[in-house]
Amino acid sequence: MGKVMERRRHPTDEALEKKKPFRKKVCKFCLDRVERVDYRDALRLAKFTSERGKILPRRVSGTCAHHQRQLSKAIKRARVIALSPFSAT
Ligand SMILES: [Zn+2]
Known about the structure:
Blueprint: H1 11-17, H2 28-31, H3 42-46, H4 58-61, H5 65-80
This protein binds zinc ion.
């Protein structure tokens, strides 16, 4: 019987094609031309921490290396003076 089986493509081929289009992340601090990340600006810092109070990684927030360094220091400083939480339980 000459039943021709259509060859299924490898599932990963489709997965690769359905990948969502690449969106360029831009550093919010660079956009606002922030030179020094203010540790007293708790509201702004809160946007760069997870729900549990952890600092968001660069790959998530899109912050540039320069500002991420400042940001992490600012968040740690803000924690010490109790402006932002060490952890949320
Ligand atoms: Zn930046």
